[in-house]
Every structure is written in structure tokens, then in C-alpha cells.
Amino acid sequence: MITLLHIDASARGGRSDLHAHGSHTRRLGERFVARWHAVRAADPVFYRDVGQAPPAPVDSAWIHAAFTPESTRLPWMQGRLAESDRLVDELAAADLIVAGVPMYNFGVPAGFKAYIDNIVRVGRTFGFDRARRGEPYWPLLTDRPRTLVLLGSRGDYGYGGRIAAMNHVEPAVRTAFGYIGIRDVRTAAVEYDEFGGECLAASLRKAEAAVDALVDELLAGLPGARIKPPALMA
Ligand SMILES: Cc1cc2nc3c(=O)[nH]c(=O)nc-3n(C[C@H](O)[C@H](O)[C@H](O)COP(=O)(O)O)c2cc1C
């Protein structure tokens, strides 16, 4: 079984193909999971909507608790870290993370940043020992391979070329997930949301085709893979 963790981070509810003001990243994420499930219906999926229900941002109590050794944590510290623990447990249980992450002001939305801050946890997802020879920080999510599929959307265009230097979404997410041990990152993104019309329509078609190709590629890479994904959505 492959366990999926599906995360949405758009502040917009609903998918753009079903709702007039819906989200493209929600649309891509649901498409990915539906195509995956068409072939592997029994694979479990955890779902997190950090756009509609963001985790509590890191505060002074969280920092105090997280940097207190687990064995000496007081009950209030355990309580403050309970949500972060749940998010880390969920992530650690996943083989495949599918995250729909829009660009807000050149970076990730606040809810997804709060998610990252809650899952990059000393002693849980990365190790730190200032006396360690060589590298004092090391990733802890290394017990098995995990893949992150990062599905983006932006209002402007050219974030892979023309204005790539202004794109702080993919680089920031790759860095944070790589730091904790998730280094296999695949991406697809919609552009031109602010332009609409044929530019946006063409970008959506391209991103959806990229999502389908990603699913097929990942399925084909599974041990013993033989089943071809069906020709699902047009
Ligand atoms: C608060 C906010 C900030 C945004 N900042 C940017 C930006 O910096 N660059 C950009 O190209 N588009 C920006 N956009 C446009 C979104 O990236 C675009 O609408 C995208 O499709 C949103 O993802 P969604 O469709 O999944 O909701 C912004 C949108 C919002 C609401």
C-alpha cells in the first residue's frame, strides 16, 4: 500500500473547474488523487486543508516546548506540541505527499508556512547536535523513500524563466522538505490566472497533462507495476 497525504493550501474554497472563483491548485490536487485512486483504490489518503484550517503558527510557547527535551517536557508543553505531533505523525506515515500550494506575494500562503513550521521539528524530523562531526543538522525522515508532488498556481507567468528569481515557492518548499529528508520533489503549475482567457486555459491544459503524466510515471515506478492508468479525464 502507498499512503498519500493530500494537502490543500489555497484560501479559495472549491475547484476552479466547478466553482466560478475556485482554486486551480485544489483542482490539480484532486485530479492527481482521483487518477491515482482509479488504479489503486485501496491506497489510504490523509487530507489536510491548511488553507481553510491552518495550523496555529509557531509562538513563544511552541518554541520553548519544542526545544525542551521530550523526557522533561511539562504537560503544557506536550499540549502545545500536540497539533505539531499529529502533523508530523501524518507526514511520517505518508509515502506520497500531494500539496496544492498557490503563490501569494512570491512565497507560500501563510497557512502552508505555518504547516512547514510545525513539521520541521528538532528531534522529530531533523536532528541537531552541535558537537557532531561534520554536519550538525541531519534529516530524520529517511526510513523510506518519500515523494512530494508540489502543485502550484500563479497569477503572472514566467516563474520558471522570465521572472524565476521572484519565485520563492518551489525553492522554499524544496529546501524545507529536503532538510527533513524528502528530496524527491515533482512539480506542475498553472500560470496566467490574472490574465484569464486562452492563456490561462492553455496553461491549465498543460498543468493537467503534467499532473496525469506525474501520476503515470509514479505508478509505473512502483515495484511490480503493470497496470496502465486508464484514459481518465479529458
Ligand atoms: C494574497 C494573494 C497574493 C498573490 N500574490 C501573487 C504573486 O506574488 N505572484 C503571482 O503571480 N500571483 C499572485 N497571486 C495570484 C495567485 O497566485 C493565483 O490567483 C493562484 O491561482 C492562486 O491559487 P489558487 O487558484 O489555487 O487559489 C496572489 C493571489 C492572492 C490572493
UniProtKB/TrEMBL annotation:
<comment type="function">
    <text>Also exhibits azoreductase activity. Catalyzes the reductive cleavage of the azo bond in aromatic azo compounds to the corresponding amines.</text>
</comment>
<dbReference type="Pfam" id="PF02525">
    <property type="entry name" value="Flavodoxin_2"/>
</dbReference>
<dbReference type="InterPro" id="IPR029039">
    <property type="entry name" value="Flavoprotein-like_sf"/>
</dbReference>
<keyword id="KW-0285">Flavoprotein</keyword>
<dbReference type="GO" id="GO:0016655">
    <property type="term" value="F:oxidoreductase activity, acting on NAD(P)H, quinone or similar compound as acceptor"/>
</dbReference>
<keyword id="KW-0520">NAD</keyword>
<comment type="similarity">
    <text>Belongs to the azoreductase type 1 family.</text>
</comment>
<dbReference type="GO" id="GO:0016652">
    <property type="term" value="F:oxidoreductase activity, acting on NAD(P)H as acceptor"/>
</dbReference>
<keyword id="KW-0288">FMN</keyword>
<protein>
    <recommendedName>
        <fullName>FMN dependent NADH:quinone oxidoreductase</fullName>
        <ecNumber>1.6.5.-</ecNumber>
        <ecNumber>1.7.1.17</ecNumber>
    </recommendedName>
</protein>
<feature type="binding site">
    <location>
        <position position="10"/>
    </location>
    <ligand>
        <name>FMN</name>
    </ligand>
</feature>
<dbReference type="InterPro" id="IPR003680">
    <property type="entry name" value="Flavodoxin_fold"/>
</dbReference>
<dbReference type="InterPro" id="IPR050104">
    <property type="entry name" value="FMN-dep_NADH:Q_OxRdtase_AzoR1"/>
</dbReference>
<comment type="subunit">
    <text>Homodimer.</text>
</comment>
<dbReference type="GO" id="GO:0009055">
    <property type="term" value="F:electron transfer activity"/>
</dbReference>
<feature type="domain" description="Flavodoxin-like fold">
    <location>
        <begin position="5"/>
        <end position="210"/>
    </location>
</feature>
<comment type="function">
    <text>Quinone reductase that provides resistance to thiol-specific stress caused by electrophilic quinones.</text>
</comment>
<feature type="binding site">
    <location>
        <begin position="103"/>
        <end position="106"/>
    </location>
    <ligand>
        <name>FMN</name>
    </ligand>
</feature>
<dbReference type="GO" id="GO:0010181">
    <property type="term" value="F:FMN binding"/>
</dbReference>
<keyword id="KW-0560">Oxidoreductase</keyword>
<dbReference type="InterPro" id="IPR023048">
    <property type="entry name" value="NADH:quinone_OxRdtase_FMN_depd"/>
</dbReference>
